[in-house]
């Protein structure tokens, strides 16, 4: 049997917040401590203190999670909150893993994580997945997903995202046990006798012609079609009658992002700022030589994408009823949509029926699952549904 409890708190003091989380879990999931606890917490918390208190009061066997950029459950949405999912099961086995020094050697970090995965040697479970939360500010997030896929011989589905700091892009943390650490990634391995459903979707469509990434430097796009990257956005703004202020470009970039042509869709990247040399800083790396387009969307498209992602995740349960879901979408989506982001959460809830969900806005999203376009994304809805 699979059991779950979803809780949230807006208490500001770490121990008070932990007590509210523990009391909520005790009411919804009485008895033995959770097998696993997934925690998303605003960067406004003293996160080490919060983790110590949550571990002491909730006594989970495992705890993983991350700092966030907006937190939500079916009942609550906002910023400056902490929310958690407690899991207990006789049919699912969990393990926690951490990979450190991402920026130095991403492959080594992935191999370090995979060593803790029991499913590589355990054959009792037909379905293998892992929640992965990474410090996206350390970079190499897409490389991490690729390296995890290789390290696990492509036997796992992955979902999750980049830890957040309310779109300040200064310092983020991932959680394991009582540690809040940067330049690292954590994973919660999920081994199940029943299918685990993962769905992915975004509502962005191409709005410009194709452009080749002719020079990149990490997250900095230096040139597109051989000219400074900012010039492409300037031309597009003129063509579409939009205002593009290079000194304060975020309002424009929230509605005009880049899509990497994968041959079967577009993987999204959010521009953040224009540098003095005309290069454009993005939230995630773009591969050199890639074909990209400027993309457009609207609030209705984002809501429809979240609905499609949830429906796709449910379909992959192969007839099993949903117990609980995890939902991730980009902080840029929340900032662009404002109060309308609530309609996206309602679309997830409506598709889930009676099943609850928990999640957060992230600095990028992770998804690698059968039948889905995989890797590290921006502005993309990612849903994982666990079965009853």
List keywords for this structure.
26% helix; six-stranded mixed sheet; alpha+beta; 2 domains; 388 residues
Helix content: 25-40%
- Number of discrete helical segments: 9
Cα shape: globular
Biggest beta-sheet profile: 9 strands, antiparallel
Rg value:
20 Å
Question: What low-confidence regions span 5 or more consecutive residues with pLDDT below 50?
Answer: none
Head-to-tail CA distance between termini: 7 Å
Short note summarizing the structure:
With 388 residues, this protein is α+β, with helices and mostly antiparallel strands. The chain has nine helices and 27 strands.
Polypeptide structure, described:
With 388 residues, this protein is α+β, with helices and mostly antiparallel strands. It folds into two domains: 2-201 and 301-387, no CATH class; 205-296, Thrombin, subunit H. Helices cover 26% and strands 37% of the residues. The strands form four sheets. Strands 14, 15, 16, 17, 18, 19, 20, 21 and 22 form a nine-stranded antiparallel β-sheet that branches. A six-stranded mixed β-sheet has the order 1-6-2-3-10-11, covered by helices on one side. A hairpin with a 2-residue loop joins strand 10 (174-176) and strand 11 (179-181). Helix 1 packs parallel to helix 2 (47-58), helix 3 (106-114) crosses helix 4 (141-151) and helix 7 (299-315) runs parallel beside helix 9 (341-352). The chain is globular. The model has no long low-confidence stretch (mean pLDDT 94).
Give me the secondary-structure topology.
Blueprint: E1 2-9, H1 14-28, E2 36-41, H2 47-58, E3 63-67, E4 71-73, E5 77-78, E6 82-89, E7 92-100, H3 106-114, E8 127-134, H4 141-151, E9 157-162, E10 174-176, E11 179-181, E12 184-192, E13 197-201, E14 205-206, E15 211-217, E16 220-224, E17 227-228, H5 229-240, H6 250-253, E18 257-261, E19 266-269, E20 271-274, E21 280-282, E22 291-296, H7 299-315, E23 322-330, H8 331-337, H9 341-352, E24 356-362, E25 365-368, E26 375-377, E27 381-387
Parallel strand pairs: 2-3, 8-9, 23-24
Antiparallel strand pairs: 1-6, 2-6, 3-10, 4-5, 4-24, 7-12, 8-12, 9-25, 10-11, 13-27, 14-22, 15-16, 15-22, 16-17, 16-21, 18-19, 18-22, 20-21, 23-27, 25-26
Helix pairs in contact: 1-2, 3-4, 7-9
């Amino acid at each position: 049997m699979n059991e779950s409890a979803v809780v949230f708190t807006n208490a500001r003091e770490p121990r008070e917040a932990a007590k509210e989380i523990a009391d909520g879990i005790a009411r919804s999931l009485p008895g033995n401590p959770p097998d696993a606890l997934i925690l998303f917490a605003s960067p406004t918390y003293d996160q080490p203190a919060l983790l110590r208190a949550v571990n002491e009061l909730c006594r989970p066997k495992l705890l993983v999670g991350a700092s966030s950029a907006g937190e939500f459950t079916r009942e609550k949405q906002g910023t400056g909150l902490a929310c958690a999912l407690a899991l207990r099961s006789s049919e699912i086995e969990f393990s926690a893993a951490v990979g450190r020094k991402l920026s130095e050697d991403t492959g080594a970090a992935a191999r370090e994580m995979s060593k803790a995965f029991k499913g590589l040697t355990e054959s009792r479970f037909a379905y293998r997945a892992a929640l992965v939360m990474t410090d996206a500010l350390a970079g190499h997030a897409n490389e991490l997903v690729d390296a995890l896929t290789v390290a696990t011989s492509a036997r796992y589905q992955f979902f999750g995202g980049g830890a957040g700091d309310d779109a300040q892009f200064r310092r983020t943390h991932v959680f394991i046990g009582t540690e809040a650490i940067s330049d690292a990634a954590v994973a919660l391995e999920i081994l199940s006798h029943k299918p685990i459903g993962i769905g992915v979707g975004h509502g962005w469509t191409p709005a410009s012609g194709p452009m080749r990434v002719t020079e990149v430097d990490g997250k900095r796009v230096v040139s597109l079609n051989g000219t400074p990257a900012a010039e492409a956005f300037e031309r597009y703004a003129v063509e579409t009658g939009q205002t593009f202020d290079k000194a304060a470009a975020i309002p424009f970039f929230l509605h005009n992002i880049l899509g990497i042509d994968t041959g079967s869709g577009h993987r999204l990247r959010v521009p953040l700022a224009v540098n003095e040399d005309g290069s454009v800083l993005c939230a995630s790396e773009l591969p050199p030589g890639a074909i990209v387009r400027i993309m457009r969307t609207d609030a209705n498209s984002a809501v429809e994408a979240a609905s499609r992602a949830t429906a796709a995740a449910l379909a992959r349960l192969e007839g099993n009823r949903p117990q609980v879901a995890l939902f991730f979408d980009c902080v840029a989506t929340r900032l662009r949509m404002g109060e309308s982001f609530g309609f996206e959460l309602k679309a997830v809830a409506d598709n889930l029926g009676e099943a609850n969900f928990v999640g957060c806005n992230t600095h990028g999203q992770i998804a690698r699952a059968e039948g889905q376009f995989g890797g590290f994304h921006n502005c993309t809805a990612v849903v994982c549904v666990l079965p009853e």
